[in-house]
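Intended use. Records such as the Glycosyltransferase involved in cell wall bisynthesis entry shown here are meant for training and evaluating sequence-to-structure methods. They are not intended to support clinical decisions.
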Amino acid sequence: MTTVLIVASNVPAQPAVLTEALERFKGRGARVAVACFFDAAELEIDPALAEVRSFAVPKEQIDKRLRTALGRAPANRKIWLHAQRSGWLMKWARTADLLVAIDPRSVHTVWEMAQRNVAASACYGLVPALRALDAGVSAPVTTRLERQVSATAARGVRGARRAAISSAKTTLRKATGQKVMGTPAGAWLWTRAVSAPKIPDRYRSKLAARVHDSAVRAGRHAEAARAATAAVNRISNAATRAELLTKAAQSELAVGRVPERLHDAISAQLTLADSLLRKDRKRAATALSNAWSLASNRVLHFDRLSSPLVDDPAGYLAPFRASEAARLLSAPRGRAVPAAPGPSGRPLRILLATLINDNFLHEIRQRYEAMPNVEVRFLDLDDDPARRSLARSGSSVIEHKLAGHTPYGEKIEEWLRPHLDWADTVFIDWCQATAALFTMPDPGDTRIVIRLHSFEAFNFWPHLVDFSRVDDVVFVSDHLRDLSTAVLPQLLGAQAPRLWVIDNAMDLQRYARPKPAQARFNLGMVGVGSVAKDPRWTIEVLRHLRRQDERYQLLLIGSDLNAKTSVAAKQYADLLKRDLAELEPSGAVQRRGQTDDVPAALTEVGVIVSSSVRESFHCGLVEGAASGAVPVVRDWPYFASGAHGARTLFPADWVVGSPAQAAERILAATATEEDWRRSGQAAAEHTLKTWDWTVTQTAFDRLFLTD
């Protein structure tokens, strides 16, 4: 009886064809097994026709060695790695007379089996298998002997080659590993080896990236920079240079450092984008996306206490302004007609649009929904499950901007055009994806208004917005406007939109609640979830105070600092943990966690502190001041040297330059209960007169209801 083994990597597209072939095999007296690299239950085959089993190793049974091998193997070899673990399958493979692959991915597995069972015939496809069966599948003894010798030799060569390659890779990994690079001799050797002559660019790049990464992790940053520089100077291919410099920068960012050659990496990607602009716009878009990913990495701006963008906006963004491809992203395309004046004879139609975050729209929405002469619609792009992915693809926007017309752009037009046609005014909260998408199509005579809060100024999205199609841009503070115009020159000039500074919409009267006398000694922070809030600065203030009076304590209201965003954030969080471990046991610091009732939580706070390195406005501080807590505001370092900042936003006596000055202000304001309540009342009165919604709503009326 002839034995046939059929191997299938996927469920056959036409199972009936397989069933028919099995019936024909049976009619010829063959005994058949079907080995499946999927759940055998998906093949509804009569057991009388064939024995059907799965041979994929279950995930829970995959050991470390197999997992490593699977991770390195190409797709077709993965099937063979599973197959040779199945005792049932390998028994069939050794005894079968005919081995059959019925799809492309199973061919390699059948070939490997044929190298071990040289007496068997092997073929690809069911029809050739039936022909082989009809012709007779056994080979002459001499032919089988030749096959055996050839197959054994081939397996030996392949095994030796794989062993040699594996050994070489292991040796290289160890030789360039962190331990070796941590020694002066190892670092000296490898930083020079990467610049050796006659090494092909692609191998030099991989070796240099490996050496650089190991040196960075070993703490040898100077040697890492030298290795990358030496290798780059030897590489002529622009794409390879850009790839190596980008990998080197990413390696340093991964350990929380500002890369030594960050600008070189950004410039290399932009040079590559410019060179590809007319030949391959898709690859040019990828290079541009890589450049912006580096420039807006959160380690540079959010997870540290300083930002190179704030230090020198023009210098930091100079490579983008010099790049032809980057300039195309924000190139003004204009609009066919200007925005129309407000309608007569019907309500004004306002569309409030955002992506996920509508935290700052509640009061605005309620006010204009209640007006009889205004019709309001709300759009969150994330609420459309079929299209939300379109709003999260910065690379697609970049590619569209370079090409001018893409299928992606057509989808955005189809999605947003009905909203643009309906609205008289589109108010887009957050200058991010929503703003970029709404300015891709010509808005017609619809007025476009964008509000930029803070984090967007450090992100790439505003650079994808066509501001020649925007009528008004709203900022929540003067210092944010100053930074944004320095970062985005298109906000100034002939085709620039009107610029407004309008405070956040806040209902502050609900925070006025009685405070107990013991609140006088309680410092409070509302929101400490990010490094930018810098709670360690407030802890230093607390230390100054407790040297004078141990009744002072700090209440942290809100979620703990998120240490998972980057290594830089974790480094800050680790320092904060040490502070808390020192002060929490005595009750000097208390974490109150997240709360849905901030006004109630603030009744325990006698002094509200803003210790941030940057804020656009700081609602938490203003809410605390509205509650009657004494406000103490650090002169936010990101803006302290500018024309506007905390000192121009708040009364001068609220703002301090150091923890010592903060402690002096607090001691004076809380010297007695009467002093404390008087200072808190004065702060609350100023806050309500300046920033309560009853005051700021008039500015929004001017924005929305006047032409």
